[in-house]
Amino acid sequence: MKCIHCYREIDEHLKFCTYCGAKQPLDRAAYEREHPELAEAVSDEENKLRPSLPDAHEELIAQDRKEYINSLLESNTSFEKEVKRLNAQLQSEKKESTKFKRLAFGATAMAVLGFILWFGSIMSSHRENGMPDSLVYKGKEFPGFTYFGNIENGVPNGFGVALYRIGDSYNRKFYAGNFVNGKRDDSNAMVLYNDGDFFYGKVNDNSWDYGVFYSNTDSSHYEGYFKNNEPYTGTWYDHKKNYSISQGQEVKK
What we know:
Elements: H1 28-34, H2 44-49, H3 55-120, H4 122-127, E1 135-142, E2 145-152, E3 155-164, E4 172-180, E5 183-184, E6 186-193, E7 198-204, E8 207-215, E9 220-227, E10 230-237, E11 244-246, E12 249-251
Antiparallel strand pairs: 1-2, 2-3, 3-4, 4-5, 4-6, 6-7, 7-8, 8-9, 9-10, 11-12
C-alpha cells in the first residue's frame, strides 16, 4: 500500500511509514474511499523518474504529426489523380491504336480485292509479253478453291490468292498470302470471311499462328496467339460507339 504522506510503497500492516514516519489510518479501506486521489499519487522519487515535456513541446509534436498526416493524405490524393490521368491517357492511346488498326485492316482488305481484280484483267495483257508459265492469272481449280498466283510442281508455291467456293465449311471468302508447297505459310497473310470477319497475321502450315481476328458481328477483335485456328493466348477488345457526326458536325444526344 502507499503511505498517505510520502506516497511510497510500504507494508500494509504498518501503522507508521518506515520512510517518513507518518501515521497510517487504522481503517485503511475507509480512508481510501474518502481519498480516491491516493491511488494516482506518486512519490517524489517516482515523479523524478517520469519523463516530463513542456506543454508547448507536446503541442508542437502533435501539430507536426497532424501536418505529416495531412501531407501523406495530400500525396495520396495527388498520386490517385496521377494514376487516373495516366489510365485515361492509356485508354485514349489504346482507342486511337484500335482505330488505326481497323483502318489498316480495311485498307488491306481493299488492297487484296484490288489485287484479285488486277490478276483477273490487267495481268492477261502482260501474259502476252513473256509472263512465266508458272503464273496462273485466269485461275486454277483446286479442291475447295480457285487459285491465282505462282505454281510449282502442280501446287501453289509463292504469293497468291485462293478464292473459296460458296458453301465453304469455314465460310471463308478468300485467302491472300504466301504458299509453300501447296500450304498456306506467311507472316502477313489475310483471310476474309463471307460475314465480314477477317484474320490478319502469321499462318504456318495452313494454321493460324499469331495475329488479329476481327469479328464483324459485334465489332470486337482478338489479338494474340492461336491454336487450331482458335484464340489461345491473347486479349479480346470490345469497341463501342462514341458519337455520330452529320455533315462534319457532331450529333448531340
